[in-house]
Sugar ABC transporter permease (Rugosimonospora africana), 322 residues
Amino acid sequence: MTTILRAPESSGTTRPAATTRSAAGRRGTRALPYVLLLPAAVVLALVQGYPLVRLVLISLRSYGLRALFTGEAPWAGVANYRGILSDSEFVPVLARTVVFCVALVAGTLLIGMLVALMLGELGRRMRTAVTLCLIAAWAMPSVASTLIWQWLFQPLYGVVNWGLDSVRVFGDFSQHDWLARSGSAFFVVWTLVVWQSVPFVALTLHAGLSQIPRTYYEAAALEGAGYWQSFRIITIPFLRPILLLVTILSVIWDFTVFNQIWILTQGGPGSGTTTLGIWAIVKAFSSQSYGQGAAIAVVSVLLLLGLTAYYIRRLLRSGDEL
């Protein structure tokens, strides 16, 4: 009986092929997320990138009312930017925008956190009812809710004036015009925007609170920690990434508030409620200086990018610390 002996295959011929396949697989795995994100990136580049490019181009030209009919807009370079930066209204409008944005973000986060904590203490049925009310307020279109708010604060037959006048604790509010002074007008707009923004923040923070293990609070209670101590050493550290995220989104939304201010006050009285967004519209359409209006919009975008970049950097650092 003859036995055929075969020489063992050299390991040097198989190992490189396996290594090559493994390396190719790793490269394919690393490239897969970018491939999946490519369609969304293309859509965003078309939807967001083209208007931004057009905005920048308009801001670099002397684009006025005549250019709408002739199509001829002479090159102006940075003249529009010099014009708005040297305008006496620029600093007050910028300061007003930043202060209003900070007040909106602070109010939204504070009230949103209180509502989120309240949701955690409610029973199941009551929590469901409150959640549905929050979603209804959040889903209401901003134009519709602003018109309702305008009716609530109407001087002659508004519900707010009627209620305050009936109580008679704060004085006479019959025919009180809330939008006649910049301070009270900003208060009305602030209340409206915060009312619209709180549901998203509250529900997001409530979802984060529900993920914190109760054992941490039980251990803290055994160590003698009170409610505020537990909130400071347990709740805030766990919610820090979520707080930073909702802060970023609130800054983006509140810095560009337009519908509420325009419908209620149109930047008045005088220019007391004029923010960068309102100023850009006034420059573009009231003064027919579309180039300067576009320049104001570009400056707003750059400021917003700087603010969001700062918070995104903090968000990434917070993620690395976890």
